Protein 1
Amino acid sequence: MNSSFMHPRNPYRTPPDFKELALKFPEFRKHAKQKLTGKIEIDFKDAAAVRALSTVLLKRDFNLEVELPPDRLVPTLPLRLNYLLWVEDLLQEVNPATEKIVHGIDIGTGACCIYPILAARMKGWHFTATETDETNYKCSLETLERNCLQNHVTVIKVTAETMLNGNIDTSHKYDFTMCNPPFFDSDSFGPKSRSDKRPLPMCPKLGGSASSTEIAVKGGEVKFIENLIKECQELKSCVRIFTTMLGHKSSLAPIIAFLKEAGASSWSETEFCQGRTTRWGLAWTFFDNFKVPKLPLIRPKNNGKGPPPLNYIISAERWSNKGDLTVACILMKIIELFNSLKMEIRKIKDKKDKKAIEFIARENTWSNQRRKQREGKRNADKVCEQPEPKKAKVDEHLLDTQKDLTFCLKGLLLLEETDTDSIKLQMQWIEGGSGRESINQILQYMKNHLFEK
Ligand code: SAH
């Protein structure tokens, strides 16, 4: 999985450790296979394995108890979160300081109303969700009850003919709609009859267990969303932003043309990339007092690899007198150093020969310290000191505070035993700060304090 494509706040930017999951959850262990290299993997084409993965991740990472029916679409979490986080970014841009509870609509909520339960747990959002399929409707109700989320989410059973009209309370104001439509055209996809020998419609990348009505509809996603846009006309003043996911890039152009005709005042599109699956997102509004923001694509600039990581070899010579040349010992010292720099740390990989942490800096402590050191040195060198003009000092202080308020850098640090007398240190920029340059500065700081002193 190429995690660098994912939304910066997506917890699965760092893929879950399957070994850890297999040890912790017997229901996942059943599907885990050990490769000759010792690596634990699952077969992503096996629906039961993908279902088990989503179930245990929901439990472990979101405290959500979910029972997914065997013959329905399995929601894969990295993609669902990428979409949800994009919606959150859009809302943030449009109305950053809102204090009121966010209320969204999810069209076609599926077997466990995945978007509403994630958003309710993560952000306390409220949802009205619709569903046509009886099994999915019932399972969604059960999911809400099991997780005590009935106060946050209402599921409505609807018919295919009317998605929103008549089902949604139009006296209420909604912040957004979401939709993961049936992507395929039922006329050109899957078996035509029970006697047809072709296999049931499968979404290979989605764990291949979806029922035909979940993933295929007459006219495909273009028709489905066009119908939705027609229905939006009735709701255009009570929903701020409409959004949908799309399974095919080619659907964007006809839908945008339809939106223009329907009188949408602005729209924007994005791409969700996770592993080998790419999906598209489209958002639109009929409001005139704001534009749907065009957010920068979260996409690496160089051939899908993201900014290249910085590598540094910790040799025995560079580590002499500081302790054992082991991944554990070096990481301990690095964590001490990062703590002294007021960074937040989250362990991501914790093997004997390979350890990784994610670090977050709320302020630029490393170059402040360097500045202080430099100032200290300069002052010591000076025989006679000229007092600095007062005004300049005040301005500098203000500037620093302003910078600190917006500064947030996120990075990854990986330590790996490569051979017996050296350890590889790798640092990867994730988000914020001055990009890779900030990571470079932190590496220099570490060299000065831990390795090359
Ligand atoms: N949101 C879920 C499910 C997406 S699959 C997820 O992301 O995993 C699409 C869902 O839309 C299916 O559950 C299907 O039953 C439902 N559906 C199809 N037509 C619909 C309609 N007209 N109104 C509401 N739901 C519909």
Protein 2
Amino acid sequence: MSNYELINFKTLGDERGSLIAIEEGYNAPFDIKRVYYIFDTKEGVIRGYHAHINLKQIAIVVKGSCTFILDNGKQREEITLNSPNKGLLIEGLIWREMYDFSDDCVLVVIANELYDESDYIRDYQSFISKVNNAKN
Ligand code: TYD
């Protein structure tokens, strides 16, 4: 499926341990404008349920694990994130849901735009219409 990819971060480290830096053009293929993180997610919770019109994001589980459902309107795929060495780059029209958060999960998201509710598509049927219009 297009519109997402796993990035294997270049890891800096020495005998003291590991360090990963993310800058625009280094481990992130876009200008970074916002960082947020999700933690203390309660058992059984499913987050997301939306797509974005223009936003690009990299999701990194720096601690614990959680699973992303990625839906491009034709196919649904699941990807479990459980390593601080990997980033899930999501761009374009992708409906996402996140679930199965471990108690200790810390999900960091790096984005190329500031928070803008008008960039969200929160209705699944509207998402499907957008996908179909984009093809025509
Ligand atoms: P939302 O993006 O729906 O969360 P998720 O996709 O993880 O389920 O955001 C939840 C709430 O937080 C919503 O009211 C918008 C607000 N919010 C901000 O104010 N700034 C942000 O950067 C983000 C991501 C959300």
Protein 3
Amino acid sequence: MSASTWSIQPDDHVRLVKAAFEAKEFAYCRYSNFRVGAALLTTTGEIIKGANIENASYGGTICAERTAFVKAVSEGVRSFTALAVVTDVASAISPCGMCRQVIREFCAENMPILLVPADYEKRLAEGIPNGGVKETSIGELLPDSFGPEDLERPRGQ
Ligand code: THU
């Protein structure tokens, strides 16, 4: 675990990683063939999943992370305790810049973000701690960031 995140219960960790893998199954990625799954753990213990949804215009593509946030927030859920992201790449893949800014909008700077390797189960079986999940936070991924509270600052004329 990274020193800059709070900890989540081990069963929530496993549940969230599993949900990210499930979310990846519904990726609509006919152009990149790069599947991504994301899962958000809410403060009430609910899990909200998202997959990447591509578009023939390319620019209309929505990443898995933003799918999960838009699903949650549009249903009135804005309070999160962790996020997990998985792809088909063996090493852990990190959210894109646009998703980082969306994470910044809704999550504490030290909320755990679990970057899950595709071979998580294999690594678990090999005894690698947490299946090789890399734990980070938006504070680490987007340092010196702009956020909602900046709009509250006093401004000159
Ligand atoms: N993608 C995500 O879903 N999340 C990221 O953070 C990185 C990129 C998707 C977008 C696109 O469908 C595919 O991965 C290739 O960029």
